[in-house]
Amino acid sequence: MNPSRRFLAATFRYLLGVVCTIAIVPGDTLATMPSPRSAQAASPQDQAAKIPPDQLDSLVAPIALYPDPMLAQTLAASTYPLEVIQLQQWLVKNPTLKDNALADAVMKQPWDPSVQALAALPEVVKRLADDIQWTTDLGNAFLAQQSDVMDAVQRMRKKALDTGAREPKGANQPLPAAIGQCSVTHIATLTTRLGDDPLATASADGGAAATFVNGGSAVSYERDPGLAASTVGDPAVLCLMSIPRDCPEGDLRGRVYYGVDLNFESAWWVLPDSEHLCGGA
Questions:
Q1: Measuring CA to CA, how many Å separate 238 from each of 32, 72, 75, 88, 157?
Q2: Per the domain annotation, does 279 fall within a domain?
Q3: Which end of the chain is more exposed for a tag (fewer CB within 10 A), N or C?
Q4: Phi/psi of residue 257, each to 5°?
Q5: Is 118 in contact with 125 (CB distance < 8 Å)?
Q6: Residue 9 has pLDDT above 50, yes or no
Q7: Under 8 Å CB-to-CB from 156, ≥6 apart: which residues?
Q8: Residue 22 has pLDDT above 50, yes or no
């Protein structure tokens, strides 16, 4: 594992533990003590202002299908929207920082650890910074209704599996067109990133790629464990997680999907459908 991945893995484990113990202090820092503000009894006005479940579902849809560590990190970072914008601006000014240099440089910035850790996930940073009102709303909801937000996440995840469970065997639905939508299909091919060798017998440095009967695809520069555990012909659910912005007309590359092999539900992946974003090479 390279240094930047070790840095991220440690932060992921930390943040996930924080979320699981419900110990996030609103707007200040991550801690092991409950927030005094969150410990106060809710006033009738606060109770009346609670976001209803259907609106929470829409609010968390773009990130609900992230793996647990990434989800915990994103939720924590969303409570610091100004720092997220600062991080995005900083990344734009420092495009050559990678690996050790990136980890060392971002740790020197005066940001919360949850925001610092996002530096190695520039697509997530851009998603949060590009729609700062949504990010602010997400962070506020997480601070005020943490258990309700996590319930909404579980509803969205269940929706993904239910999509596959209620479809007849052999069904192949069109690719989802909107963030948060899911469709069931089947795995057509599993190969290395360049498609030159079967994934099952290829070396680990060949990356991974999959195509699906409904026209979907997934690509990774590394050997993705979810794809590696899957088998051609297996039914799968694909849920659309993000859509790049400002794409040339007709260029749909760069969409990110959450996928689950329905024959082996511990086999999941979060991958783009192409090596390049729309408008790229």
A1: 36, 21, 22, 28, 11
A2: no
A3: C
A4: -120, 145
A5: yes
A6: no
A7: 57, 60, 61, 64, 65, 180
A8: no
Q: Which of 98, 129, 157 is at the close of a domain?
A: 157
Strand order in the sheet with 182-191: 217-220, 208-212, 182-191, 235-242, 256-261, 268-272
**Total-model pTM:** 0.58
Mean pLDDT of the chain: 79
Phi, psi of 270 (to 5 degrees): -130, 105
Q: Is residue 64 part of a domain?
A: yes
Distance between CA atoms of 21 and 230, rounded to whole angstroms? 33
The residue among 267, 24, 9 whose CA lies nearest residue 150 is 24
- Return d(Cα 181, Cα 145) in angstroms, integer: 24
Question: Kindly report the CA angle at 150 between 148 and 156, in degrees rounded to 5?
Answer: 105
User: Letter for the amino acid at 200?
Assistant: A
Contacts of 257 (CB under 8 A, 6+ apart): 216, 218, 238, 239, 240, 241, 270, 271, 272, 273
137 and 241, same domain (yes or no): no
Give the HSE-up count for residue 198: Cα atoms under 13 Å, Cβ half-sphere.
7
Residue 250 lies in domain: 167-272
pLDDT, tens digit, 9 for 90 and up, residues 90-139 = 999 998 888 889 999 999 999 999 999 999 888 789 889 989 999 999 99
Are 55 and 96 in the same domain? yes
* Whether residue 179 sits in one domain with residue 143: no
Q: Is residue 162 part of a domain?
A: no
